[in-house]
Design goal:
The complex is a heterodimer of chains A (549) and B (125).
Chain A: H1 2-11, E1 28-38, E2 47-56, E3 64-70, E4 77-78, E5 100-101, H2 109-116, E6 121-125, H3 137-155, E7 171-181, H4 183-197, E8 204-210, E9 237-243, H5 254-260, E10 273-278, H6 308-326, H7 334-337, E11 350-355, E12 362-365, E13 383-385, E14 388-393, E15 403-404, E16 412-418, E17 427-431, E18 447-454, E19 469-474, E20 483-484, E21 500-501, E22 505-510, E23 522-528, E24 535-545
Helix pairs in contact in A: 2-6, 3-4
Chain B: H1 3-14, E1 24-28, E2 46-51, E3 63-67, E4 70-72, E5 75-77, E6 84-89, E7 101-105, E8 108-115, E9 123-124
């Protein structure tokens, strides 16, 4: 137990940081809105434009940034006073006599009210009209855009019902943030795409998703093909919160969208992408209208958060921190790159993955190359000693159940297993230069970055973190000191709901920590497996990155 | 016991499944005019109704009925209590006699519920 406590302590925040969950100075008002029976081009029946808005009571200081929230698939009817939500048998969906509509959109009051107190107008949409049916995520995106069009009208000098001119000129629709939960996640990504196709009439500066689906990327023959396009988060700051104990979107589909962020083409930027894998968090507690997880649910290895306020604090920190960083220009980037401790209100470990806009990085290897893992993407020859290095992709990275690899089907990695029958210290040396073995100038970069995950394998320690050392070598033969990876991030044994997921997390090490080598003529980075007698790791996305924002 | 043996036992223990109390499946063909079809007539749809003593949850992942290699993802609730879930297979020619039948939400193996193998003789007119 002592070792477990030490590991947990190493994962938890050590020092207080600025916390975006704190209440702001502004008094907040809120109001419902509903425009009945609006025709939608891709929905077979008219739907209500229904939502709730939270805003600073003193609108005179506007315009304010606009944040739009979209819930996911959930029951839409309940008995008065009940929290048991049900689907309906009819379309358009109507609740039977004796039941009322579930206010799914109201479940984000806890974070919306807090964000509005910092000078944001926050609207949350009710999607009951397109819930309790298969897929429906492109339609969700269409309805989000339709809501934005209504807000455009309410922001115009003429205004419109039900608000009159109350919001005229008060809503900054060129500074929009979207939050989508569950199917709402893919829904807001769809809205981003529809906005792009329309010539970007709305300025969507950031998207954060919670436990999202990614139906467009279900390529395996054993899966349902929804026909959705693959929605990526190009040209906008983007983050995804993945609950490790998600009993609903139990395959953490949102990590696929993050994996793709390393490869998407962007014209705007910088638009960083991040992934926050929250240990112990569940799917439903991020919406206060949603009842607890499936009672048959349990979470492997790590206790599920049973305290709803604790999880709402996580939602408040990251959603509000995201909006205040990427819309408001405040300095909460540390919440997303994870290079420093998280605020004390986050009482559970968070595994970060982070990617700058691809064009800002120097990608050494993503293990996609034909000669991987013994040559990098750039051609440089790698070397190994007493270690098995095998490239894998998609199902090739999976162990038999209960091990799981839920990354994007296009995500490649190298699996490193040591020892490999020898007696020497195992190593994997990554050549950073071009084909032919020459050096490379990396002095324009500030960080060495890679993603790593422990495999579900008895060679790895179960309680303590896996560990290894790194060093750099330059063309003169100068060698930096050895640095243990756990100085920066723990590499814990796989956890997760139902299956043990190997989730890649980002390790970012300042180049300054590799003092003693000439970064203008760097030849290689050595991974030396001298900390544990045996182990099995996945390594991915090895790159040099610019300084922290 | 070796470390690997302990590990394997632990691994086997960890794959678990939720259950739906009283889950049953019935199949029927929607009423249509004209002569009665042969049992294995492949024309037209077949409805599969899954009933249980508790409600089928509404989740981010859709419920999907698998009959052999056939994936049936068109569904609706059959009653207001959500204890009935009706899947529609629009092309009955895809249904193979003796095929294994299960339902699960998306890829969530822990939600998987197995039913008796498909038999045309159980499809009611």
């Amino acid at each position: 137990m002592r070792r477990l406590a030490l590991l947990l302590a190493s994962l938890l925040p050590l020092a207080a940081q600025a916390d975006p969950a704190a209440a702001g100075p502004l008094t907040v008002a809120t109001q419902d809105y509903k425009i009945a029976a609006v025709p939608m081009p891709t929905v077979a029946y008219p739907i209500d434009i229904w939502g709730q808005v939270w805003y600073p009571e003193d609108l005179a200081k506007g315009p304010y940034p606009f944040v739009f929230l979209l819930h996911g698939n959930h029951g839409i009817c309940r008995a008065p006073g009940s929290m048991v939500d049900l689907g309906t048998t009819s379309f358009p969906p109507n609740c039977p006599p004796g039941q009322v509509q579930t206010p799914n959109h109201a479940g984000y009051d806890y974070l919306a009210r807090r964000l509005a107190s910092h000078g944001y107008i926050v609207a949350s949409m009710n999607a009951n009209a397109i819930n309790v049916r298969a897929n429906g995520n492109p339609e969700r995106g269409q309805v989000v855009v339709e809501h934005l069009r209504y807000w455009q009208a309410w922001n115009s000098p003429a205004g419109g019902e039900p608000f009159g001119t109350m919001f005229s000129g008060k809503v900054d629709l060129q500074n929009i943030g979207l939050m989508g939960h569950s199917r709402g996640g893919e829904g807001v990504r769809a809205a981003l795409e529809f906005n792009r196709q329309a010539g970007r009439p709305f300025g969507i500066k950031g998207i954060i998703e919670i436990g999202p689906v990614d139906f467009g990327r279900t390529t395996s023959p054993t899966l349902v093909t929804t026909g959705n396009p693959v929605y990526d988060a190009a040209d906008t700051a983007w983050s995804v919160i993945l609950p490790s104990c998600d009993a609903d979107v139990s395959d953490n589909q949102g990590m696929r969208a993050f994996d793709r962020a390393f490869q998407i083409t962007e014209t705007a930027g910088p638009t960083p992408k991040s992934q926050l894998y929250i240990l112990g968090a569940n799917h439903n507690f991020y919406n206060s209208e949603w009842t607890p997880e499936d009672p048959g649910f349990s979470c492997i290895d790590f206790p599920i958060i049973t305290d709803r306020p604790q999880q709402e604090a996580i939602g408040t920190v990251y959603v509000n921190g995201f909006m205040r960083t990427y819309l408001g220009g405040e300095k909460f980037q540390y919440l997303f790159h994870g290079d420093s401790d998280q605020p004390t209100s986050i009482r559970t470990p968070v595994a970060h993955s982070y990617a700058e806009t691809p064009a800002r990085n120097l990608l050494i290897d993503n293990f996609q190359g034909a000669f991987s893992p013994m040559n990098t993407l750039l051609g440089g020859p790698n070397a190994t000693g007493n270690i098995a290095a095998v490239r894998c992709i998609d199902t090739g990275c999976r162990n038999p159940p209960p091990a799981a690899w839920r990354h994007d089907p296009g995500q490649a990695a190298v699996r490193l297993d040591w020892p490999d029958g020898g007696t020497g210290t195992p190593y994997y040396a990554i050549h950073v230069g071009p084909d032919g073995g020459g050096p490379r100038d990396v002095s324009a970069y500030a960080l060495f970055s890679f993603r790593v995950a422990a495999a579900f394998d008895p060679k790895n320690p179960v309680i303590e973190s896996q560990n290894f050392s790194l060093r750099m070598v330059d063309a003169t033969g100068a060698v930096s000191k050895l640095i243990p990876v756990t100085n920066y991030k723990a590499i814990p044994y796989p956890t997760g709901y139902g299956f043990r997921r190997s989730v890649l997390r980002t390790v970012r090490i300042p180049l300054a920590d590799f003092a003693g080598v000439d970064f203008k003529q760097l030849t290689r980075v050595d991974l030396i497996f001298d900390k544990q007698p045996q182990g099995a790791l996945f390594l991915a996305d090895v790159l040099f990155a610019p300084a922290r924002p | 016991m070796t470390r690997r043996t302990i590990f394997s036992a632990f691994a086997a223990f960890m794959v678990f499944a939720r259950t739906m109390k009283g889950a049953k499946m019935t199949a029927r063909r929607p009423k249509q005019s004209g002569e009665r079809r042969a049992e294995s007539d492949s024309a037209g749809p077949v409805l599969f109704e899954l009933t249980a003593e508790e409600r089928w949850p509404v989740r981010g992942l859709d419920p999907v009925l698998h009959i052999g290699g056939t994936i049936i993802d068109s569904y609706r609730f059959g009653n207001a209590e959500n204890t009935s879930l009706i899947f529609t297979c629009y092309d009955a020619s895809q249904l193979q006699e003796g095929a294994a039948v299960f339902m699960r939400y998306g890829q969530d193996e822990s939600s998987r519920i197995d039913f008796p193998n498909f038999a045309w003789s159980t499809v009611k007119e």
